[in-house]
Amino acid sequence: MSMQGDWGGMAPKDGFAVIDTFLTTNKLKLADEDEKKWAAMKADGKGDLWATMQLPNWVKVDLRCHFNNGKVEPEIIVEGDPEGVETLPLPAGGVELPIVARAFAPDSKTVTDGVVFFDTATGKERGRVAQGSEAWRAGSVAYARDGKQLAVGAVGGNLHFISAGDYSIARTLAAADLPGGKGVGVIGFAADGKTLYIRAGGLAFGISAENGKKGVEFAKPPFEAGDMTLSHDGRTLAMTSGMMGKQVAVFSTADGKLVRVLEPKKLPGGADMFALCEARHVQFTPDDGRLVASGFMGRMAAVWSLQAGEVTGLLTTMTSQNVALSPDGRFCVAATWHTMFTPNAVYLCDAASGAVVGVARPLSGVFASSEFSQDGQYVVANRNDGARCLLFKTTALAGAKPGGLVVPAGTRAATRP
Prior knowledge:
mainly beta; Beta-Lactamase
């Protein structure tokens, strides 16, 4: 990646300040010969500066400054990843876990992939499912509202119910005996814990959590379904249109009927529709009155009002595959992969303004998803390798600063591959 800041003609003192500020802010020092030329240029009001600095992680900086008709034209060009000059260690409370985190317990004290369970406060293992867990991998996980059991949709197709007390398999329902007759994904439990909502073959069903008997069958959505999620009160189910669409279908869990299809017609503030990402991931807000639909093929995630059926807000995605909203609605978190616009990092943003309030850039790896715990005190970011995640305290992530160069914004700045 190359970043170029070109400030055009400026008063000499202002042009000199651009270069000096860049050097002092980033604690950089010119080579002795370049330092002499720079000092002479500022003192004499003539001459040129063309200095090259080779920094760690294969980052190169070119500093250029010359006079033109009595004005100074400073230029800063960074070749490579400017945030790769330094890498920020995980902030206090940050820890790497050897799982893909799929669910927090309702009390937020445990995070799990459905097989191994970790204490969120210490990052230490609490326990693991012993019976036959080596033979299957979890694909989806949901806790019952009372936290006493969880349902695990195994990659192999079966559905396991796990006791949260001793991590034993209470019962297993074979894929052949479930609606769809093949592998299932767990969506969530009804409020009373008696019904479990699952997905199979692009459709959603309600089944008995006791014996797997089929209950409500949801109507087929008008698109190939992507993510599916349950509202906090268990009355509504939402489905996204996946990788290439921006629609969200909303269903009633009482009878499985399609209530409405949310399709963006216009965006708040006249924002460009092209900037809206696809609806790959969907989440209900704590009051169940709004939906956040996000993806990474765009720059903004949609906040839908279910009552109005319109996009009433936008959240920056930071090129993340999903944006998660905190339970209190104050923050959103986006874990990104590396692009020409953003490095791989975990961004905590103010949900109202979109301002970044904290960012952690790990040593390596890109991210597939991020979520908040039920109480909002923890953030988990899953790496794209399908084997690890990073667990942060939200208070530690807030205020964390990225490593790397601070490149000042220019009046004619550009970023290009």
